[in-house]
């Protein structure tokens, strides 16, 4: 059996960012994901904010990696052909006391190296953020607050990593790890992966994976966040990301712009015990709605088109990123909650540093394909560009999803790039994510997926085995 | 840019009736755009009877009702039919862009009739929290899966809402061999026709719960159960009244909303509550020369009314064009 | 003698009919505002019938499913037997609306007819 130099456990934004970074070197790398597709764990419910790096405790790993990650995200996003929208962030003050806090946050942020911070007054807000509550007296403006599509970010990292030789295995849940002289044996169902080093980026399950090599000094507590998506028609309800002043446990309820246009409100923050509990509640909805109405009074509950919940993998106040001396060659990357998405590229570099320190000799590949061809999203390009695309490939004119204007060509391309489930197609193309919830396009997308993968339509799933969309086919 | 006298968006019952009527009222150049590969719209999946009783004084199925208009539209040379054509832009001055395989076309119309129908309300619009597993369908999607694709979406079904589509689908699932465990209606009485309550629910002894709602959906990969509670007249949950129903499918039939995103894009005013165009008369929008008919103007109970009112839209558009 | 309340579905008025019956025979009907109601109650109590609509598999033509109906109502008790039959049908040639798929469906003397053409 071949031995991998490195096995990464977990195909979220952290695991895939690390995979892409390691792909520069002459290493044999495997990435193992328990779900049917990448980004199906913590990353899929990320809000997509690229945080400027304020509001993190000075001296923490978070604080350092967030500011660095913010910068790196822009650079890598260009290489990988994904849009980072520079919307900027406002933390708002309702009172003189709040304003004093903003000055402190500004000072702390500047000390961390957050660029461009400035306090803006009511007149500025009237001009640049007209729907903001008139009770807001001032705000801290952070121009480097930005947005990205969190799942497409994961898929782009993974695609580029794979292009550079990283082997990706989905539906591969590591159940136990055996330490051997050469390193580790990872048992995943009937398969065994041998690896000299292991990187544990298992998100909510990082504590359990650590437990497999005898490390039990931390526990992951899922912190649930319920979020609510508004109709795309309300895209311009705000021009910036709107934050209240944060508390100890959370950044508070936000009005978020997302990369595909739909504003998002939330999240709640509730520590729970079940790592699979992605349910939303009426209380959560009401709480979020009333909190964000305080920021932007014109937000209307009737505009909400989707509910979802995500779980932040919390392990204390800071990230845990370390080499485990008790299990040489095993590196833990755990507790990557907010600002994890922003920090991911910096975490990847940090992990490379740890690998070097642990004695791994890193030799760069002669050629590293750092660029990735940007995929087409009709909804994001002007009509004359669409016209040219349709002239080249007629199926760009074959619209599958009416709400989000997604063509059959985009759906087929997503499948060619690795989508295997209805959710995988949704995350990549936005098909089914609009106001009709896929009532119109589901049948067509199912048929395309079955056709492209050569599988019967009854085997099409929402997000992997057990979530089949239909039960029976009359013709079978 | 090509110019056309009349462009009709949507080839369902509304669009076809409007096209025929516009022709009968003297419009010589009509382009009918339909996004599907067939005319008929949603009627194609409504294989049940109940159509045509008022308009034709006959009991027809959806496809049969559609066929009568398809034939007529196809026989009128001045109506050009463009299928698989999806309108993506509409402006106030009636410039319209549509895509179809291989083509992006922008045209200027003297008048436009929007016959874009309606969409089904989603789970979020009636605030049902819980998880998001596979097995949650709008009634219309389930209808399409069964009747057009020959696929059975689930075996143990709970229907939310006692509107006609929900009732008809309760019967359809039952006849296909699935078990419909309940129809849950938040109101004190059905929103559907009496004949559908009798023939779709009572015929098969399906429990119909009035003054009840689903307060939560459970299941991680696939729907596993729903929690149902009784509500008071203001639709507040009555504590202690809850019970679970195990099921693998939740079917939502909780109302329809006119599909008017295109005229909204063009700047027409919409009623915030109903999503219908704000109008000073049947089939008119706040933009001169842009008309709306059928379910995109307002949600009708029966297709016959859609046909009748859409005929007026064709006439109005013809008068508008004549007056230019 | 027993009494059953049923709602007439002949028109949107929906009269509530009180039907006295014994051994599947109607004895008396109250509440009908027109003769249609009386007739409805008798059929509904003595021999309820329904038009069956469904779809059958089509192995020819452009559509996977061809919608069908019975040309006349069939006994309610035969609905599931009829569905079993419908599920077995595989159309080998394209059909037009109105084409007869089964001239004596289930031996009931009713026709099973196509309600939509299966060619594009």
Written account of the structure:
The complex is a heterotrimer of chains A (476), B (324) and C (120). Chain A is an alpha+beta fold. Chain A has three domains: 1-84 and 147-219 and 315-374, FAD/NAD(P)-binding domain; 85-146 and 221-313, D-Amino Acid Oxidase, Chain A, domain 2, CATH 3.30.9.10; 378-459, BFD-like [2Fe-2S]-binding domain (Arc Repressor Mutant, subunit A, Orthogonal Bundle), CATH 1.10.10.1100. Chain A has helices spanning 13-22, 61-80, 96-112, 122-128, 150-163, 206-211, 282-295, 340-357, 383-392, 408-416, 422-429, 442-453; strands spanning 3-9, 29-32, 49-50, 89-93, 118-121, 138-142, 146-147, 167-169, 176-180, 183-188, 191-200, 221-230, 241-243, 254-256, 264-266, 270-271, 304-314, 320-323, 330-334, 399-401, 406-407, 472-473. In chain A, strands 1, 2, 8, 9, 10, 11, 18 and 19 form an eight-stranded mixed β-sheet that branches. In chain A, strands 12, 14, 15, 16 and 17 form a five-stranded antiparallel β-sheet that branches. In chain A, a hairpin with a 2-residue loop joins strand 9 (176-180) and strand 10. Chain A starts with a strand and ends with a strand. Chain B is an alpha/beta fold and 324 residues long. Chain B has two domains: 2-119 and 256-322, FAD/NAD(P)-binding domain, CATH 3.50.50.60; 122-252, 3-Layer(bba) Sandwich (FAD/NAD(P)-binding domain). Chain B is built from seven helices and 20 strands. In chain B, strands 1, 2, 5, 6, 7, 8 and 20 form a seven-stranded mixed β-sheet that branches. A five-stranded parallel β-sheet of chain B has the order 10-18-12-13-14. Chain B has a three-stranded antiparallel β-sheet with strand order 15-16-17, with no helix packed on it. In chain B, helix 5 links the parallel strand 13 (179-184) and strand 14. In chain B, helix 1 runs parallel beside helix 7. The longest helix of chain B is centred in the last third of the chain and has 20 residues, at 303-322. The two termini of chain B are 19 Å apart. Chain C is α+β, with helices and mostly antiparallel strands and 120 residues long. Chain C folds into two domains: 2-47, no CATH class; 53-114, CPE0013-like (CPE0013-like fold, Roll), CATH 3.10.530.10. Chain C has helices at 35-46, 79-88; strands at residues 2-7, 16-22, 25-30, 49-50, 53-58, 65-70, 74-75, 90-91, 100-105, 110-114. The radius of gyration of chain C is 18 Å and the shape is elongated. Chains in contact: A-B, A-C, B-C. Chains A and B meet through helix 7, strand 17, helix 9, helix 12 and strand 22 of A and strand 6, strand 7, strand 8, helix 3 and strand 11 of B.
């Amino acid at each position: 059996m071949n031995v991998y130099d490195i096995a990464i456990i977990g195909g979220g934004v952290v695991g895939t960012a690390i995979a892409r970074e390691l792909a520069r070197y002459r290493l044999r790398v495997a990435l193992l994901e328990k779900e049917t597709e990448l980004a199906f764990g913590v990353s899929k419910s990320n809000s997509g904010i690229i945080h400027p790096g304020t509001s993190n405790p000075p001296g923490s790993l978070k604080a350092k990696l967030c500011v660095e990650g913010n910068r790196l995200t822009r650079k890598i996003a260009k290489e990988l052909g994904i849009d980072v929208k520079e919307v900027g962030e406002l933390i708002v003050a309702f009172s003189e006391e709040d304003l004093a806090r903003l000055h402190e946050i500004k000072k702390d942020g500047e000390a961390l190296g957050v660029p461009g911070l400035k306090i803006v007054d009511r007149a500025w807000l009237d001009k640049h953020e007209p729907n903001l509550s008139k009770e807001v007296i001032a705000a801290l403006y952070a121009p480097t607050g930005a947005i990205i599509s969190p799942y497409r970010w994961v898929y782009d990292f993974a695609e580029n990593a794979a292009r550079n030789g990283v082997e990706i295995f989905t539906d591969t849940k590591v159940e136990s790890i055996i330490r051997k002289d050469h390193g580790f044996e990872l048992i995943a169902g009937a398969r065994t992966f041998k690896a000299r080093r292991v990187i544990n980026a298992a998100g909510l399950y990082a504590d359990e994976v650590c437990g497999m090599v005898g490390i039990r000094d931390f526990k992951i507590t899922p912190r649930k966040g319920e979020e609510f998506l508004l109709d795309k028609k309300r895209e311009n309800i705000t021009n910036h990301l709107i934050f209240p002043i944060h508390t100890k446990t959370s950044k508070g309820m936000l009005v978020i712009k997302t990369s595909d246009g739909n504003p998002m409100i939330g999240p709640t923050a509730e520590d729970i015990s079940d790592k699979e509990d992605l349910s939303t509640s009426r209380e959560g909805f009401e709480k979020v709605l009333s909190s964000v109405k305080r920021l932007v009074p014109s937000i209307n509950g009737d505009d909400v088109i989707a509910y979802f919940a995500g779980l932040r993998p919390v392990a204390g106040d800071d990230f845990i990123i370390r080499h485990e001396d008790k299990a040489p060659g095993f590196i833990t990357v755990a507790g990557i909650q907010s600002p994890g998405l922003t920090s991911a590229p910096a975490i990847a570099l940090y992990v490379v540093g740890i690998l070097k320190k642990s004695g791994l000799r890193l030799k760069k590949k002669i050629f590293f394909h750092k660029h990735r061809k940007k995929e087409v999203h009709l909804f994001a390009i002007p009509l004359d560009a669409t016209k040219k695309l349709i002239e080249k490939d007629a199926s760009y004119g074959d619209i599958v999803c009416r709400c989000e204007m997604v063509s059959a060509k985009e759906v087929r391309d997503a499948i060619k790039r690795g989508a295997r489930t209805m959710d995988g197609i949704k995350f990549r193309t936005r098909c089914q994510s609009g106001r009709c919830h896929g009532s119109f396009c589901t049948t067509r997308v199912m048929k395309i997926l079955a056709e492209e993968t050569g599988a019967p339509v009854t085997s099409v799933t929402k997000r992997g085995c057990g979530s089949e969309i239909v039960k029976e086919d009359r013709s079978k | 840019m090509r110019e056309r006298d009349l462009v009709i968006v949507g080839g369902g019952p509304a669009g076809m009736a409007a096209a025929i009527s516009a022709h009968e009222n003297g419009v010589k150049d009509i382009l009918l755009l339909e996004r599907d590969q067939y005319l008929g719209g949603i009627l194609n999946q409504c294989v049940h009877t109940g159509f045509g009783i008022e308009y034709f004084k006959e009991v027809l199925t959806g496809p049969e009702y559609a066929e009568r208009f398809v034939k007529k539209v196809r026989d009128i040379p001045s109506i050009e039919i463009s299928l698989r054509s999806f309108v993506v832009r509409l402006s106030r001055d009636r410039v319209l862009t549509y895509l179809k395989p291989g083509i992006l076309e922008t045209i200027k119309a003297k008048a436009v009739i929007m016959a874009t129908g309606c969409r089904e309300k989603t789970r979020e619009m009636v605030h049902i929290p819980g998880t998001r597993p596979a097995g949650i369908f709008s009634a219309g999607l389930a209808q399409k899966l069964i009747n057009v694709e020959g696929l059975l979406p689930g075996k143990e079904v709970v229907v939310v809402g006692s509107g006609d589509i929900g009732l008809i689908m309760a019967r359809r699932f039952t006849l296909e061999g699935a078990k419909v465990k309940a129809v849950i209606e938040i109101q004190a009485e059905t929103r559907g026709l009496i004949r559908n309550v009798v023939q779709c629910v009572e015929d098969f002894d399906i429990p119909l719960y009035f003054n009840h709602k689903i307060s939560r959906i459970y299941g991680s990969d696939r729907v596993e159960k729903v929690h149902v509670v009784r509500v008071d007249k203001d639709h507040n949950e009555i504590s202690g009244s809850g019970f679970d129903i195990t099921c693998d499918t939740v079917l939502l039939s909780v109302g329809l909303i006119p599909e008017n995103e295109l005229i909204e894009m063009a700047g027409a005013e919409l009623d915030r509550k109903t999503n219908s165009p704000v109008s000073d008369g049947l089939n008119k929008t706040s933009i001169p020369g842009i008309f709306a008919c059928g379910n995109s103007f307002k949600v009708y109970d029966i297709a016959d009314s859609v046909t009748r009112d859409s005929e007026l839209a064709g006439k109005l558009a013809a008068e508008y064009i004549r007056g230019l | 003698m027993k009494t059953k309340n049923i709602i007439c579905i002949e028109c949107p008025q929906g009269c509530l009919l009180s039907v006295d019956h014994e051994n599947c025979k109607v004895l008396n009907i109250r509440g009908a505002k027109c003769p249609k109601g009386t007739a409805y109650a008798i059929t509904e109590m003595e021999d309820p019938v329904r038009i069956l609509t469904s779809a059958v598999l089509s192995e020819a033509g452009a559509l996977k499913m061809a919608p069908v109906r019975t040309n006349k109502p069939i006994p309610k008790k035969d609905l599931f037997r009829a569905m079993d039959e419908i599920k077995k049908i595989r159309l080998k040639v394209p059909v037009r609306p109105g084409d007869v798929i089964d001239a004596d469906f289930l031996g009931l003397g009713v026709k099973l007819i196509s309600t939509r053409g299966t060619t594009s």
